[in-house]
Design brief:
Elements: H1 2-23, E1 26-40, E2 43-50, E3 59-62, E4 66-73, E5 81-84, E6 110-116, E7 122-128, E8 138-144, E9 168-177, H2 182-192, E10 201-204, E11 220-224, E12 229-236, E13 242-247, E14 252-257, E15 260-267, E16 270-272, E17 277-283, E18 290-298, E19 311-317, H3 337-346, E20 365-376, E21 392-397, E22 401-402, H4 410-415, H5 444-447, E23 451-452, E24 455-458, E25 463-470, E26 479-483, E27 488-495, H6 500-503, E28 514-515, E29 517-520, E30 524-531, E31 536-542, H7 547-550, E32 553-558
């Protein structure tokens, strides 16, 4: 009997192994980074694109697959590609941030990114991580549940999600458009010390919509069948703006954010910060006709210039006439912080759902990280700069303004023990002051942050809790903070200065939302917790594209574990040279 049971168990184990191997595939793509001429707003503009399209190609994989992407740089600029939200377990060399995990791919050169999709499913995205090129070099990255071993390449997934299977799935990539070369835009800002020029338009799947000049036909249309339910995979690929999104006369049900399932949340408006994603269901249950979908900025900063335009697309029911006027979508006011905060704080994680990770209850390392704008001394030849107080705009975390190296990637320096590239002395706590008091916005005692490349060293598997605290320096605004290499639990968020005695009682340790990018409330704070189970060098930064070159960033140096499965391998042979 015992021998018979052993044979059965062995047969089951072999069948499980075979199924796992059969269900994992190698998915291979090539991205050709090259110039493309695009016409928007009565204007031809040369932009950098991937494969001659904007947005770039949607990449589809299943959980468990290995993704191999050959990037060939045929553009005139250095570039890297970041796989936003992918864990990169033991593949940190493929994470992509310039000079953090790799040196840039030079014009005329190539690099192959290779990594496994482990323990993730949902909507993520890929984008350039060099200068402002993210504006036009980006695309959706959709991870389906692990495939049926009998049909390893079937799309969409061959078995249900933890919610009713939609009739159709549609990526909705929200972008930002300049009638200018975005490299010139950022170079002018960095040279003058001022903020960059604001964008000229927003886009839905590369179309600006009919609110703009010369754009009556430059609009995205989605045809739907009445009575069917659709899943929109919404991605905010804009550089510098959070966005409200709405469909006229339709309710939306959020079922996932940042490729992590949520309890279903019914709403009429979705808010996504740069870098964030949201999977939402909507049922075409209205009278046959046309309905606008629309997006415009959520802007929390007072007296901050911004692009106050609206992009629109059209939901077109089968059977509607071409002459029907679409129903208007009424978005919240640009500064509707209560609407944005309601959305962000009402989301909860789908506990016990696919890939759910419980909140680690024991914390090994506590950090308190303030962040916001600051100033750098003017070094202009004529002695004046165009930033506040005649200085240069800068940014900081814990009064340290981050500077990227240029001689070697930080990951190389970490793995090969090269000194002089960075220091592991990023402070766990900030200089103390009344962080969110607007009367201190231009107090020069706090405005100037020293430049440097400082990281925080973590032991493998340490559990880290971080209080992320906005400040009122220069301007009071909301900041999206993105952590590479990990997801994190969002335990709580609120306004004002964080008070541990008061706020810790509000922590959600049961079913908090899980994210890779958190929109920290304007003049407020958020508390996140993650386990450092991924060796490498992992950037944490503001996902507004001006703020990284200004210095609103730091990085975590995670040591190897004590087994081969917790040790980062050496770089690939085609790893770019600096």
């Amino acid at each position: 009997m015992a021998k018979s049971l052993s044979v059965v168990l062995l047969a089951c184990a072999l069948a499980l192994l075979a199924s796992s191997m059969a269900s994992a595939a190698i998915v291979e793509h090539s991205l050709y980074i090259k110039n493309l001429t695009v016409n928007h707003l009565c204007h031809d503009q040369v932009v950098v694109s991937a494969n001659g399209s904007l947005p770039g190609p949607t990449i589809r994989v299943h959980e468990g697959d290995t993704l191999v992407v050959h990037v060939l740089n045929q553009s005139p600029y250095n570039i890297t590609i970041h796989w936003h939200g992918i864990f990169q377990l033991l593949s940190a060399w493929s994470d992509g941030p310039e000079y953090v995990t790799q040196c840039p791919i030079r014009p005329g050169h190539s690099y192959t990114y290779r990594f496994n999709i482990t323990g993730q499913e949902g909507t993520l995205w890929w984008h350039a991580h060099s200068s402002f090129l993210r504006a036009t070099v980006h695309g959706a990255l959709i991870i389906y549940p692990r495939s049926n071993p009998l049909k390893p390449h079937s799309y969409p997934k061959p078995h249900p999600y933890p919610f009713p299977t939609p009739y159709k799935e549609v990526p909705i990539v929200l972008g930002e458009w300049w009638n200018a070369n975005v490299i010139d835009v950022v170079n002018k800002a960095m040279s003058s010390g001022a903020a960059p020029n604001i964008s000229d338009a927003f886009t839905i799947n590369g179309k600006v919509g009919d609110f703009y000049p010369c754009s009556k036909h430059d609009i995205y249309r989605l045809k739907v069948v009445r009575g069917k339910t659709y899943m929109l995979r919404i991605i905010n690929a804009a550089l510098n703006n959070q966005l409200f999104f709405k469909i006229a006369n339709h309710t939306l049900t959020v079922v996932a954010v940042d490729a992590s399932y949520t309890d279903p949340y019914i709403t009429d408006v979705v808010v996504v910060a740069p870098g964030q994603t949201a999977d939402v269901l909507f049922t075409a249950n209205q009278t046959v006709g046309s309905y606008y979908m629309a997006a415009h900025p959520y802007v929390s900063g007072v007296r901050v210039p911004f692009d106050n335009t609206t992009t629109r697309g059209i939901i077109v029911y089968n059977g509607s006439t071409s002459s029907s006027t679409p129903v208007e979508a009424v978005l919240p006011a640009f500064n509707d912080t209560p609407a944005a905060h309601k959305f962000y704080t009402n989301l909860t994680g789908l506990a016990r759902g696919p890939h759910w990770v419980r909140v680690p209850l024991h914390v090994d390392k506590h950090m308190f990280v303030t962040f916001g704008l600051s100033l750098d001394s003017c070094r202009s030849g004529n002695g004046t700069c165009q930033g506040p107080l005649g200085q240069r705009l800068s940014a900081n975390m814990n009064n340290q303004s981050f500077v990227l190296p240029h001689t070697l990637s930080m990951l190389q320096a970490h793995v090969f023990n090269v000194s002089g590239v960075y220091t592991a002395d990023f402070p766990d706590r900030p200089l103390e002051f009344d962080y969110t008091n607007p009367s201190l916005s231009f107090n020069q005692s706090y405005l100037f942050a020293p430049k440097g490349t400082k990281v925080s060293k973590l032991k493998y598997n340490q559990v880290v809790e971080i209080v992320l605290q906005n400040t009122a320096l220069i301007v009071v605004e909301n900041h999206p903070i993105h952590l590479h290499g990990f997801n994190f639990h969002v335990l709580a968020q609120g306004f004002g200065n964080y008070n541990d005695l008061r706020e810790r009682k509000k922590f959600n340790l049961v079913n908090p939302q899980i994210r890779n990018t958190i929109s920290v409330p304007v003049g407020g704070w958020a508390v996140i917790r993650f386990q450092a189970n991924n060796p490498g060098m992992w950037l944490m930064h503001c996902h507004l594209d001006t703020h990284l070159p200004w210095g609103l960033a730091t990085a975590f140096e995670v040591e190897n574990g004590h087994t081969p499965l917790s040790t980062l391998p050496p770089p690939p042979k085609d790893y770019p040279k600096c």
